[in-house]
Amino acid sequence: MSASYQHTQSVQPTAPSPTLTEEMTGRPSPSPLQYAFSGKTSAHAGRGGQPPFAAEVAQQQLTNLFSTPVKAQGKRALYVHIPFCRVRCSFCNFFKYASSPQLMEQYFQCLLVDLERKAAQPWSQSQPFDAVYIGGGTPTDLTAEQIYSLGERIRAWLPLRDDCEITLEGRLNKFNQHKFERALAGGFNRFSFGVQSFDTQVRKAAKRLDDRETLLKQLKSLTASNSATIAIDLMYGLPHQTTQSWQQDLEDTLESGVDGVDLYQLLNFQGTGIQRALDNGQLDSLMDTPQRALLYRQGADYLNQAGLKQLSYCHWASTDKERSRYNRLAKSGAEILAVGAGAGGNIGGLSYMQPRDIEPWQTALEANQWPVAMMMAKGKQHQRNARIVGACDQGAVSAELLGEQRFKHAIPLFSAWQQNGLAMLDDEKVTLTLAGQFWSVNMANGLLAYLNENPLAA
Known about the structure:
Blueprint: H1 3-10, H2 22-25, H3 32-35, H4 55-66, E1 76-82, E2 84-85, E3 97-98, H5 101-119, H6 122-125, E4 129-136, H7 144-157, E5 160-170, H8 177-185, E6 190-196, H9 200-205, H10 212-225, E7 229-236, H11 243-256, E8 260-265, H12 273-279, H13 289-305, E9 309-310, E10 315-317, H14 325-331, E11 335-339, E12 344-347, E13 350-353, H15 358-366, E14 374-377, H16 382-394, E15 396-398, H17 399-402, H18 404-409, H19 411-419, E16 423-425, E17 429-432, H20 434-438, H21 440-453
Parallel strand pairs: 1-4, 1-11, 2-3, 4-5, 5-6, 6-7, 7-8
Antiparallel strand pairs: 8-10, 9-10, 12-13, 13-14, 15-17, 16-17
Helix pairs in contact: 5-7, 7-8, 11-13, 16-21
Pfam family, one: Radical_SAM
GO molecular function, one term: methyltransferase activity
Protein name: Heme anaerobic degradation radical SAM methyltransferase ChuW/HutW
């Protein structure tokens, strides 16, 4: 044994420096809102898990889970998917089926089979549901009677809390007074409409239907009835959008009287109409991330100054009626029962997707099997990870939520966030700045990566 080795062995060891990467911390910049990261790491935070199960294992897993009653397992929600649209919007890369009345009726009958079978399971009956979300696609393309029947069956077949939020998603085009009244009669108490922009030119380029005046008139009529919560989505970064048109969108939102509004960043993917227009030279360019970041600040500042309550980094409420409960549950890891082709859910620490195509989904139903295209375990830390994702979505991670020891363990990361203008740190919590909120998905993924790469000592 050499003398030098003997000497180094006698030195008191020091704690290893934590692993910090730019993907976790962001980078120093004069404008962290625009340049802290090169781009959004993913559309949603916390995705991923173990390798998928084999088909027969997935079947058995679902059978075991559904046949087991549960109690006091936290809040839960139902997601029902309607994979039909009359028009494919230019920013959409998941269009599946055109809204053919005959095909939709056939699908609807199978949907009720899927719903009834799952609703009858001991797991489903053992605890009330806190939220229901009918998404798509364009669920408002269903007929008035289909909408009524779906709401009525959900309320009859599943235990729902007295204040359960039951949302119907869709578009305002052809959502007439009759459909609204039948939806209300079926039990729907919240409606979420994809407006994206009020500007007629922007809407036309995005292949959205109806002009600004028509949209405003219809929204004012719906909100004036005070019969349900009305929320809308706006999107920033669309072709032909300017700071002026975006400001008008924000002002139109308040004028419409809606109870809630989401501000979503355009993320352009391969396969969209926008990407094809770029490839074909029909569209010169899109706003880059730094430009979109400025529109986010413009929107957040305007809504906050107008007195709206910020529920998440992208969602604001103008009245107490708006809770956005389903979205908050889904982002925080609540158990989700999935119904319909293309629906995704998670139960008992397992996430699963139903077949996107109607044919294999329907074939599984007819064979009295669970329609599942993919299932995987979410990992041992999935509940912790879900809490982190939900906290970042809402703008602050507290020591109470993370745990005192783990919070202290993450101080090097939080300090780097603060140094880079993404957060403010104190003894009780780390609060995301406006820049941190814009990059909240990156922040959540960064914290998860830090905890995975720098685990606490046993």
